[in-house]
Specification:
The longest helix is centred in the last third of the chain and has 10 residues, at 55-64. Strands 2-1-3 form a three-stranded antiparallel beta sheet, with helices on one face. The protein starts with 21 loop residues before the first helix and ends in a 6-residue tail after the last strand. It has helices at 22-27, 55-64; strands at residues 32-36, 48-52, 72-76. The protein is α+β, with helices and mostly antiparallel strands. It is globular, with a radius of gyration of 13 Å.
Length: 82
Amino acid sequence: MPRSTAFDPKTLIGREPERLTLDEHNAIVGQWIALEIYDPLRLPLRRIEAVGASVAECVADLRGRGLDPERFEFVLVRPPYE
């Protein structure tokens, strides 16, 4: 049975954006990611919590997982070394 070569961006949930491989980063260029906003009282880890084609898609994913979208910043992934 042939393996699928399609990349699922959801596999990046929980990963640090700075530690993505070049191929992983290139696979999500043009997509939005949600990162928890820094708060010195909580010291959140800088991890990808949602990936989507739009901010609205990221918000829906966060809400679907019971997370408050107001605690996140949304960043458009740009090509590396731009």
